[in-house]
Amino acid sequence: MSTVRLRFAPSPTGYLHVGGARTALFNWLLARKQGGTFVLRIEDTDVARSTQESVDAILQGMEWLGLDWDEGPFYQSERFPVYKEFVEKLLAEGKAYKCYCTPEELEERRELAMREGRKPKYDGTCRNRTGELPDRPYTVRFKAPYEGVTAFDDLIKGRIAFNNEELDDLIIQRSDGTPTYNFVVVIDDATMGITTVIRGDDHVNNTPRQILLYEALGYPVPRFAHVPMILGADKTRLSKRHGATSVMAYRDMGFLPEAMVNYLVRLGWSHGDEEIFSRDDLIEKFSIEAVGKSAGVFNPDKLLWLNHHYIKESAPERLAELLVPFLKERGVDPAAGPRLPLVVKTLQERSRTMVEMADGAIFYYKGDFAYEEQAAAKHFVPDAAPLLAALAGKLEALADFSQTGIEALFKEFIAYKGIKLGQVGPAVRVALCGGTASPGIYEVVEALGREETVARLRRAVAFIAG
Ligand code: GLU
Fold this sequence. Notes:
Layout: E1 5-8, H1 18-33, E2 37-42, H2 52-65, E3 71-75, H3 80-92, E4 96-99, H4 103-115, E5 139-142, E6 149-154, E7 158-163, E8 171-173, H5 181-191, E9 196-200, H6 207-217, E10 223-227, E11 230-231, H7 247-252, H8 257-266, H9 279-285, E12 296-297, H10 300-313, H11 316-329, H12 340-347, H13 354-365, H14 373-379, H15 384-397, H16 403-417, H17 425-433, H18 441-448, H19 450-465
Helix pairs in contact: 1-9, 5-6, 8-10, 11-12, 11-13, 15-19, 16-18, 17-19
The structure holds glutamic acid.
């Protein structure tokens, strides 16, 4: 086991967003590639906004994508004593100080600084104070250096440097005793031995402050990789305006997890011009250095294309299992008709999502459909009735009721009648499926089975006569 340790650290304030899922995926891939450890940490220090429901939704999203974690989930809300200890340590070492300035005083000084054209940063009143004010509430501030530069080599963005002058004396503990975000992230990543931090680039500005904390605490600074955000087609940050942003919404829209994983990884990462990657491929080929510097644009058509690919490739038995909830949603009982894997097989080529597959499967299970008006008008002509009746009789007596047997029967039938398949095929299709868009006739006949096929042909004959 290598000592490489990565983590995903979501804040449970909503569902698992596609951007978060991609961050989790990159971390997971790197951990798996390097034989390292993948840690899951729930950043729930913001008690007002964190919910158990969101935690569950995030875990569910990760499980759906197959991103298994080796340690955790750890909850920051359960680690307050640890954070407290580190605040005390920094205070004792003189690397942090108690700040008694009230919010009103701070606001006043901030406004003054702005008026005088100075940077509105903390003025150091309590940094320079000697002695304590025992009866006054206080925050704890980190004593950051006023001079010098804090820099790091981002694995994606390259070298990033900040002048320490621009950084503030960060509050690490609020006046109510709770620790602040930038502080707990460092304590956790340091004590959990995280070696590489992959996260969204909205955290770039936090990184120098965090680095200074690692240094003050005497912990090694991890490597950082800040992933560019995901944009919608109009090049603005991906949001609900562009469509679903929750990973689980994509499951409900009929996407397969392997399509989602393949899609997410390509949003920012590339390997030559390859598009299709199995999980093992990804573990072998992924590298964080090959993630691009520019933001990925979410392209629903490409996701559909990938999903179609994986639907075509999947075992019908597996798809059948996944299809059941979609059918039930449509009021279809899959036990009341042909065996589902058989039905799936007829629909794989023509379904881009499981929703399309479910819609396409309904006619197998609900034979009492109304015929599509235009299709019936065009193909249910008087001449069609005797042909459909004759076919019904022949199918009733067919010994080999397999696709090959059925196809042979149709060919023999049209040769004998001296007609072309086009003169009877569409009417058969409308009779069996209700419309003209359907899988191949022979497949449909085989999947429906003898009894149902014959019944539907005779129903059409009666319809034409009536
Ligand atoms: N909890 C943070 C977020 O959800 C992530 C912090 C980090 O990865 O360092 O944005």
